[in-house]
Design a protein that fits this description.
Layout (H helix, E strand, L loop, with lengths): L1 E6 L2 H6 L3 E5 L2 E2 H7 L2 H7 L5 E4 L2 E2 L7 E2 L4 E5 L6
Parallel strand pairs: 1-7
Antiparallel strand pairs: 1-2, 3-6, 4-5, 4-7
Amino acid sequence: MAVRIVFLGPLRDAAGSESLEVSAPLDWEGLLAAVAPELAGQLQSSRVHVACAGEVLADKTALMARDGEEVALLPPVSGG
């Protein structure tokens, strides 16, 4: 029983890998505990979004990923 965490863009560089598998279920506190402290700090920024099972969460602290689901960490988007 696992949840796959996918790191996108610069968050992948910060994590040092493309993905990580952790035990299910996974909530917000579990996500922060599963990643490196520096990355956990970045995830708390309002500019970083979290998607679970293909849906971007309006409130990322409400994360509740179940077995087999994917959690994608979406970095801030720059534009011009």
